[in-house]
Amino acid sequence: MDFKESKFMYLIAFIVIAFVIGQSLFFLIRAYNHGKKIGLSAKKMKDAITASALFTIAPAVSILATVVVLASSLGTVLPWIRLTVVGNLQYEVTAAQNAMEAFAGSGKAVAFGQDITDPTVFSAVAWVMTLGVILSLVLCPLLLKKIQKKVGKVKLDSGSDNKFGDIITAATFIGLISAFVGTSLAGKASTIEENGVKQATGMGAGVMSLAVLLTSIILVVILQTLCKKFKWDKFEPFVMPISMFAGMGMAMLVYAVLPESISMLEWRPAV
Amino acid sequence: MKKESQFTPFVEKTHFWGSIFSVLAIIVLVSVPVSIMFYLNVRPEISDVLKGFWGVALIFWPTALIEICFYTPMMGAGATYLSFVSGNIANLKLPCALNAKNIVKPKKGTDEEEVVNTIAVATSAIVCTVVIAAGVLLLSPILPKITAEGSVFGPAFNQVIPALFGALLGGYLVQYWKLSILPIAAATLIVILAPTIGTGALIPICVILSIVGALLMYNNGLLTGGVKPENPLKGLVKKDK
Prior knowledge:
Distance between the termini of chain B: 28 Å
Number of strands of chain A: 2
Largest interface: A-B, 171 and 168 residues
Shape of chain A: globular
Number of helices of chain B: 9
Largest sheet of chain B: none
Shape of chain B: globular
Number of helices of chain A: 10
Distance between the termini of chain A: 37 Å
Helix content of chain B: over 70%
Oligomer: heterodimer
Largest sheet of chain A: 2 strands, antiparallel
């Protein structure tokens, strides 16, 4: 049996999953109970739960796709563990690639995409992927409270002007969203070396990303306006997830209807 | 005499539990390569591990520091602790928290906001973990066919980011379209000029530009119907003196 898919590896994965779910449940129940205590209605909190669950499905499936990308070299279980705790889409591929490149010229060299058969290389890759993400967990208990104290002070000092506070909060979120919107409008796909050949990971900005972006934006604007006008309160939690899925559906439609030379056109192809 | 806390008792306790869980998460995280090493009975060369590690740390350690500074004010204590354990913050946990806040509309800077953020991120972490686990256990033989470029669903899974952030932007455009012009134009221009810039580096630049732009617009009356309000930062500077 492949050591990367052994029962022991699955056991580690289940322990990690139990920890992440256990912690999340602890915080969820604690927050829900406190919400009830401070007068937040059960309906509002359930709306937040429903909307968050729906909003998570599509990104979770694309994270799952990253497990598949990494599985060609690392098996399924290690990427599964790494993407369950601390990991993220962009990081894991880069970390695995860097770790494998470290063995270049050692006689155990393996290129991204090739199956790792040497347990020592596999163990080294697991160490690199772990150590690379550990800093944020170390910094959280050290810095988080201090940062919140500083932010709280600014909020208290400027608390007299609520409109200004709302504008700055909105500007902060819009700034964050803009980074991804800018990438969807003009970004170039990143590349990895697979079996010694440079390959693009995902797609850069082009006809497809523009069509998807515009569909999601327009649909949210229309649905939110309708919700406000006709007071569709129950429908509101579904507006963003529906628009997101509609955007993804538009990608499938564009691909099916337009010739590939147009639908897959990227402004700046990576390879 | 006991020093009075700036936080509510709920947030104060959240910091306590968050710190405990962060330490536990470090133990769980490190135990993965340690167990693999003992199970396979191998000892990789420290120099090999370090060689790979520096390449990763140079990119991701500064980003980790920036992320904590930027995400904490946006998500509050509980959601930030949870997010840094379960990962995928910018592309999943933060959008979820924003979406939940848009629906519940809690009062800013209160326990209400803390509760909504935590509920959103905890739910997202649970659903994401379950989807990945179910996918690996049940779908791994067919998943490559679903997400492969040639499949019917392939294009959809290549476009999760524009679909997700388009939906979020739409929500803000209804109310704050003027605030959106500068950061989107700036982000697009930066990406055109520096195509390899990662979102980790792009996010803080866009957030700072967006806040500065909002402040200038506010001070010039562009967001208050032409009426020029008093500079809100003027008071802060005087107070500090």
